[in-house]
Specification:
Radius of gyration: 27 Å
Number of strands: 17
Mean pLDDT: 89
Largest sheet: 17 strands, antiparallel
Structural class: mainly beta
Low-confidence stretches: 2-14
Length: about 200
């Protein structure tokens, strides 16, 4: 029986966690930073404005960075950075009115997509990346229609297409090695209005 009790006590102790807190202060006495530890590893760091509001909250899982939240003095969230296995996976920035301003997505620590928004919540621009290099950029009018589409090859512009608000192509530009080679302007009817050809980025005729 005694052996069983000793075994249970040992098991209970093994499941205990030890939490400690370290607090830093501004020279004027206000709390500047609170660092929390669990079993010797940092679990959370909270940074404060001198006026007492939370400025930044940094969270950790198993000693690895998992989330960073930055606040306006009003208390509203300004930006949230999320991490997976210590690598940045997503960044969300906000307008002061609380609406999402920008969302960055990362894969294996590399930027894969950036979406920016109007204050109304509608999409303003979408940037797509492959291996950290730009592959496509799409811009939108405030009402939601596509304004322009940019395409890239190996990070260099290959094509730019702009649109009328009604959806028809306004202008199409083609690039070779990042240099403008041809520009075609269209009427709303779809008929060609003008064609300019370029050599090494310079107008040829």
């Amino acid at each position: 029986m005694k052996k069983l009790l000793i075994g249970l006590m040992t098991l209970a102790i093994s499941f205990q966690t030890f939490a400690t807190t370290k607090t830093s202060y501004y020279p004027t006495g206000e709390v500047e930073e609170v660092e929390e530890h669990v079993d010797g590893e940092v679990s959370k760091v909270t940074i404060y404005y001198k006026t007492g509001e939370v400025n930044e909250a940094v969270e950790f899982v198993d000693g690895k960075l998992s989330k960073v939240t930055v606040y306006h003095k009003t208390g509203k969230v300004k930006q949230v950075d999320e991490y997976v296995d210590g690598n940045k996976s997503k960044v969300t920035a906000y307008h002061k009115n609380g609406e999402v301003y920008e969302v960055q997505e990362h894969v294996d620590g590399k930027l894969s997509k950036v979406t920016t928004y109007y204050k109304t919540g509608k999409v303003k621009q979408v940037d797509e990346y492959v291996d950290g290099k730009p592959s496509k950029v799409t811009l939108y009018y405030k009402a939601g229609e596509v304004n322009a589409a940019l395409e890239f090859i190996d990070g260099k512009r290959s094509k730019v297409t702009t649109y009328y608000k009604t959806g028809e192509v306004n202008q199409a530009q083609e690039f070779i090695d990042g240099k403008l080679s041809k520009a075609t302007l269209y009427y709303k009817t779809g008929k060609v209005k003008e064609v300019d050809e370029h050599v090494d980025g310079k107008l040829s005729k």
